[in-house]
Amino acid sequence: MLIKHFNEFASFWPEAILLVSGHGSIMSANPFYCSMTGVEESTACKQKVYEHMTDSADKISRYLRVCSRSTVPVIGAFTLINSDGGVIECVSRGNVAPPGTFGKSSYVLLRFKRKTFFGSKFNQLNKLLEKTQSSHHKLSEQAALLKNEIAIRKQADKSLRESEEKYRITFNNADVGIAHIGINGSWLKVNQKLSDIVGYTHDELIGLTFQDITYPADLETDLEYVSQLLDNKIQTYTMEKRYIRKDRSIVWINLTVSLVRSISGDPEYFISIVEDISKRKKAEEEKEQLLKDLQEALAHVKILSGMLPICSFCKKIRDDKGYWNQLEEYITDHSDVEFSHGLCTECAQKHYGEYFDKKV
Hints:
alpha+beta, Beta-Lactamase, 5-stranded antiparallel sheet, 13 helices, 12 strands
């Protein structure tokens, strides 16, 4: 239906009628409306509905929004302005024009009657309308808040999923062993690196406790640290200890442990970081053995280079235990020197003179 056809129809209607756009522009005013307000149709169609009422623009806008969503009449109370400046207290009934009536455009149909037609019933309807509009406004605000809350929760859920995925990747691909351990010592969750360190599969470890694979000599110290964590005396601890691998070999590890508590403060599980330090330990042992060998060598050299008690007559040497030893015997025992025996010229002449003179 075109607006001119609507005008022909509305001209016979015994009510004051306005056809208003969603922005409040007056598209049509029927003769009854013009007669009641004294405003010419050509003038009215150049104005907005706000110019025809003393009510606030906010109240009128809310009413138009409600009417634009309703196919049944919505009751309202407004004050129209006469052309001479007077006012007319009216009751309005507004609803959206049926879809397709004016093509793709959407308009609100407003019908006005003086309040005197309704008497006391109008006041009741007016109060009910105001209450309904107030409730609608509150519901709109609550809906907006709820929509915002849903958006915030969706973003929080997305961030949580992303965080959990990053943790899963870190847990499974870390270059150190990572485990969640129950308060009783049972393995709750382990990564592949930890399985590689101790030689047990994930499922095999889940059936054990950390006490089962800890080297006995290291267990007491470890349990003492655990007790301090549970008593909240420390927040974390680090120690070097040994695990017994599945093949019964020993592996040295550097262990760092912290305790996860619930919101109420109750202990939930331990987080353990396990680093294989067997190579470092082996290098340290080799270094210690080298130092020991060097110290023994140095001590050996000191014996040979120190002051030796020697007899002035027989030339025997007294050792650390107080025994007297032949010179060559002592030196042979305390060095890599070997002796070969011979005669010097003086001794040859002294002891074997007759043979020495003939030879010469």
